[in-house]
Amino acid sequence: MIEGLHTVSYAPDDQEVERTALAGGAAIQQLISDRDHLRRQTSAQQQEGMVLRTTSDDLRRRLLLVNQGYLELCTEMLCQFERFDGVLREALGDQQEALKNPDETTLIDLAQRLSPLRRASKDGDAGDVRTRRETETVRRPRQY
């Protein structure tokens, strides 16, 4: 019940149909060209992503090796510091023992007694080579 509706029949001519078909064909060609361009871009981006992933994995591996190297270096340095501390404590303990027992000779006294200069002075009866100040300096404990 539609009253008053008139049907208009329109019959396009051949040239209009041909232009429409050509425009549709051009649009389809443009869509195909766009699709191919997007496929090439996607493929290039996927390859770039794989290269970046490989580079990232290589950098991660190198960083882990550097980290491991630093940990080993720190561990070795800590061991060396502990050894140094032990030797230093032992040396200071020996030095303090030598100060408690002044009759014991120190390594410097022994070296001077055995030195060729000392022997030459004994042969010439020059007496003790070291002065009192040198003796006090040698026996005085160092402060660390």
What does this entry show, briefly?
This protein has 144 residues and is mostly helical.
Number of strands: 0
SSE order, one letter for each helix or strand: HHHH
Give the oligomeric state: single chain
Radius of gyration: 49 Å
Q: Give me the number of helical elements.
A: 4
Proportion of beta-strand residues: under 5%
What is the makeup of the main sheet? none
Query: What spatial form do the alpha-carbon principal axes imply?
Result: rod-shaped
Distance between the termini: 114 Å
Low-confidence stretches: 125-139
Secondary-structure content class: mainly alpha
Give the overall pLDDT as a whole number: 77
Entry keywords:
single chain; 144 residues; mainly alpha; 4 helices; 77% helix; 0% strand; rod-shaped
What this model shows, in words?
The chain is an all-alpha fold and 144 residues long. Among the domains are: 35-87; 105-144, no CATH class. 77% of the residues lie in helices and 0% in strands. It is built from 4 helices and no strands. The protein has helices spanning 14-100, 107-114, 116-123, 132-139. Mean pLDDT is 77; it is low at 125-139.
List the helices and strands and how they pair.
Blueprint (H helix, E strand, L loop, with lengths): L13 H87 L6 H8 L1 H8 L8 H8 L5
